[in-house]
Design brief:
alpha/beta; 27% helix; 7-stranded mixed sheet; binds zinc ion; globular
Length: 283
């Protein structure tokens, strides 16, 4: 009874030679769900010997570009290399259909080139786009998925997802302040995967745009409080701003863990891209 959480991309909008953009893989049984599709996501997925065709669904927490910038790559790769007759399912907040339509419009020449060139390719990418607000996410499969609204204002709407399989449950928060919607998913769940920024450092940024991000993200301390308030066993932090390597003397993020540990006594994880955490219950 295990759900595997793999941090595919632990970076942020700031380009990094070491970290891909925001993306997390949730795996249970034979199913794989991609949460957000940031820069380099398929390179990291390839690091697990998986491809777009292995995905049971792509779920977007919100429509900030760093969280979907490589969705076009997922769409094209699934179309060319994935199952021929099975649509790629993309779940996201209201506005997702518009974003996907725009991506398809940008790909229209490529789609035509490939259909003209490959005799066995007779249809454009098959997509199943589902916009959600709150409650169960209607996907086939053994993993039960639900969503709830988060607080990333002025980015609206934004949502978090829960994934439940054989009594194990994990929540992917995305970018958000602590909020009742996130709490509603976390209550009774085992692990929280939360994007975080170091507000104690960013508050001294000389860049006004750096200061702007303070009011719509959680800090490690706030993410820890959310996990603690809801009785969770594990907190996994990702989306490190500034980069994990530059804040901690050993480059291992221990200072991020120490901040969270002031508010949460469970297991706390940080890591580089492809860091995997197994959330297990029972046998
Ligand atoms: Zn965001």
């Amino acid at each position: 009874m295990t759900i595997s959480v793999t941090l595919l991309g632990t970076g942020s909008p700031i380009p990094s030679a070491e970290r891909a953009g925001p993306a997390t893989l949730i795996s249970a049984g034979d199913e794989h769900y991609l949460v957000d599709a940031g820069r380099g996501v398929l390179m990291r997925l390839a690091g697990l010997w998986l491809g777009a065709g292995n995905l049971n669904g792509v779920l977007l927490t919100h429509l900030h570009s760093d969280h979907f910038t490589d969705l076009n790559d997922v769409i094209t790769s699934y179309w060319i290399l994935g199952p021929a007759e099975k649509p790629l399912t993309i779940v996201g907040p209201i506005g997702t259909q518009e974003v996907v339509d725009s991506i398809l419009a940008s790909l229209s020449r490529d789609v035509q080139y490939r259909m003209d060139h490959h005799d066995d390719l007779n249809n454009p990418p098959l997509l199943n786009v589902i916009e959600v607000t709150e409650g169960p996410v209607p996907l086939e499969g053994e993993v039960s998925i639900a969503c709830a609204p988060t607080d990333h204002k002025p980015v609206e709407p934004s949502i978090a997802f829960s994934f439940s399989h054989n009594e194990v449950s994990v929540v992917t928060a995305g970018d958000t302040l602590p909020c009742p919607g996130l709490d509603s998913l976390c209550e009774g769940a085992d692990a929280l995967i939360h994007t975080v920024i170091r507000k104690d450092i960013i508050q001294f940024s000389p860049n006004p745009r750096g200061l702007d991000i303070l009011d719509y993200h959680s800090s490690p301390e706030e993410a820890a409080q959310t996990a603690d308030r809801n009785g969770m066993s594990t907190l996994i932090m990702t989306h490190y701003v500034p980069d994990l390597n530059v804040t901690s003397p050993a480059g291992d993020g221990q200072d991020w863990v120490d901040l969270a540990a002031q508010h949460f006594s469970g297991q706390i994880e940080v890591g580089d891209d492809l860091h995997r955490v197994e959330i297990t219950k029972g046998d």
